[in-house]
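Bug report (template v2)

What were you trying to do?
Predict the complex of my protein with adenosine-5'-diphosphate.

What happened?
Run completed; filing so the output is reviewed.

Input:
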Amino acid sequence: MKPIVKVKNLEKSFQNKKAVDGLSFELNEGEILGLLGPNGAGKSTTINILSTILAPDKGEVTFFGRRLSEDSNLIKNWIGIVPQEIAIFEDISTEKNVRFFGGLYGLEKSKLNENVKEALELVGLYDKKDELPKTFSGGMKRRLNIACALVHQPRVLIMDEPTVGIDPQSRNHILESIKLLL
Ligand code: ADP
């Protein structure tokens, strides 16, 4: 089986301090990979490189055999990102949030409608589609953020600490819905 994500000898420093030092791993289709390590180990830096937010100093990242350094625009269509800091609009409806992110990927209207519904159902927020996120708990906001990351149907979902600081019910819901994606 060919790995769908390949990371080889990745290095990144900030002001001469190594944040990532020669990291290599592979991810196969249908796998969930977690990066574990203490604070400052370089997990977010790695995720930011994979998400094309940061450029590495050295090393290579490929998604489905294409190099991130050469084909980042193509790869951006293939990945969904759930950042550590929740990134949603608090004052527009849940559905409009997901629709906005889907629109960024240029989905045509009927496909967008279908995907918005599917993403909200997956995270268990379809019945709250007309509500404003500012009324939500941290866990519900996180679930909405996941729906926003999934609406364009990415081939790889990248999440930075998706269950940190949230209620156990949302935590379980997030972990269960991720398994449903496999
Ligand atoms: P983790 O996510 O595992 O807690 P990070 O990737 O956030 O670790 O950080 C790894 C190291 O890089 C830490 O020492 C952190 O202080 C440093 N670092 C991360 N981002 C920056 C930045 N933008 N500027 C300077 N140092 C940074």
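What did the reviewer find?
Residues 109-122 form the longest helix (14 residues). The beta strands are 5-14, 17-27, 58-63, 66-67, 79-82, 156-159.
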